[in-house]
Amino acid sequence: MPALVPLLDAGHVHLSGGDRAGCDAVVAALLLRSVGRADPGAVRLIGYDPEHLGGGLAGFAPLGTAGLLTFVGPGGLGPLLDDLVEQIRRINETVLAGEYASLRELAAATGRRPEPWRVAVLLGGDELNRHERGQLDRVVRAGVACGVHLVVRGVPLPEDPAVTRVVAETSGAQIGGPSGLPVRLDPPPPATLVTETCREIAARVNAGPPPTPFSDLLPPPELMWREDSASGLTAPIGEGPQGRPVRLTLGDYPPHALIGGPSGTGKTNLIFAWIGALAARYSPAELEFYLLDFKEGVSFARFAKGRRDPSWLPHMRLVGINVNTDREFGLALLRFLAEELRRRADAAKKHEVTKLAELRAVDPTGHWPRIVAVVDEFQMLLAGRDAVAREAADLLEDLARRGRSQGIHLVLASQDVRGIEALWGRPALVAQFTLRIALPKALRILAERNDAAQSLPRWHAVVNAESGMVEGNEIARIPSASDWETWSGLQNRLWRMRPPDAAPARLFDGDAIPRLADAPDFRALEAPADGSAPRSPVALLGEIIDVQSRSAALRLPRAPGRNLAVLGTRVDEACAVLDAAARSLARQHPPGTARFSIACLDPDADPMARALYDDLADDAAWYDEETVGELMSETADGLTGPGSPHYLLLFAVDAAAGALAARAGRRTGLEHLRRILHDGPERRTHVLAWWRGVARMRADLGGPAARTDQIGAWVALDAHGGELGSSLYPGTGGPDWYPRPWRGLFFDRAVHRTGQVIIPYGPS
After folding, report:
1. Coil, strand, or helix at residue 616?
2. For this chain's UniProt record, which GO biological process terms are given (predicted)?
3. 754 annotated to a ligand binding site
4. What is the reported pTM?
């Protein structure tokens, strides 16, 4: 029958006798069975082998790569015993804390073991001094309850019921002392088995422990949406080393959070876990999210309504993805939050209060949820030295400083150390982010001398609400929350609980091209009920890069200069702008009350121009290079009275310069065009034309020195900012505009002080 020796959570083992090989075999077998049967990383070995300098445990050396085996050199027994006693004291005070008699009892009651087993292997040495003997006695008496065990040969142990004595002589072995149970010792385990087992355990530990279940962060279903956010937002983010939840708070203090960690360390997963824990506790009336992701990817799109999953997170008001090239969208979010901050501050002033909790108390019928704005890879907003970066930094600083009192909280995340460095030039801004969350190997998130994140395993984070100072460190084990199935279960439950008037979040995808038919502003257009022409029709040109999903609109009243120039060489985008403008104008006119003259002078633009002509049916007329001169002449000659609305849609009009100039007569076709641009708008005749360059437009208007007042609005595509200066744009030097695919800069003299970035609507 097997002879069993109680060790883990049970006692200590003392070996003696003349059969040294037998003792070594017992040590190897005990340790291999202990580390091999326990969960990887649950057993940590400390070796003291002064005679052979660790050679007696050489087969277990691979455990050292995972921090599961440490060796103490000659003369180090005293410090080793001191450390074991300190571990026992700490576990009794902070882990057991008077609630449990032992770690074994705690594990049986909670299902978790917050501390590893620590096995000190003492293989000989000099005679112990008085202090060392006292410390060894303490470990023998109190160690078992705290998972601290001794396996000893060559060092005497005091008499204690927890000590099992094995005597190995060449004539036989006994358990329980010289007169104990006779046993036949097993042969030593094969060296290859020891090494391979230890390598496998070390590899699994180095890969990191598996995450805890996401459900651990969630309250029971019957307690969801029961929390009140008046004084702040609090939710667990994971469990600490003792198995207790680690909670994050956003409120008056700490007001904002900074998250950092290299790629692959779980930043996205942590954001999912935090959002889920908050969304399960606070209803949409208590909490709203705005989420912006500057890196490429669509993982955050699942918070919004999608084709794969029609549900959405009811708390989410905005999701921006793939905005790495659309810094203007990040700026639009900050402007939106700044306006909301102003609105809340005005309401607080009206009610003579200063904080959100006070405002909610005196205005219980108002809608004052706490707002959490998460900006991932936020450093993209601050990159460069242009107007966007300057305004974004100023808005961030103002929101961080004043947002806390009005319930607006910022969570900035970055995987690149440069993202954090972008903040250090603004100490007043950094000081507001007192909650720091550092993932494994994160740099510059915590205080300068706080390197706790460098040794973190996977699925863990350092949570620090004291601006990164060492004394504020808490280690949290983060659940797996970002996989589709895990998240969808929670989102669908919360979606079914949504209020009747809940609307899905606005989803902005920087890689997607919006459609005119889906635009709210387009759907809202309609012709006057009395059948008359609208007094000030609106041409929609594209989608503004902002929070509200608005359309860029050009009003065309009877006023000088109400014409549009589209500038650039990108055929598809230029055609899309003119197409959207024409279709939105047609939607506002009853059939037969407006004329649309379409002139296409570039073969590449012909398919889109033809599709527009076919859809406008009886209200449209078609012109080409041979007949465009007639269009100019007839239109110019017809400018004698207000007439009916007439829109000239000229595709690549600069291509007609030769044909227009070749027309013999008192006036050339270009002169007719200039007269239409100048006099037409006041007579309800407007030109919406595409020129394939700024210089070509100036040539058609009369040369480099020609005035451009008759062009009241323009959309620049691949025309650079420097080309748009002088008479087209206020000030000197032109706008800060760097062309990029499927983006345009819209400027209306009558409305704008600066240009507005838009996304042309895709082909209808």
Report:
1. helix
2. cell division
3. no
4. 0.76
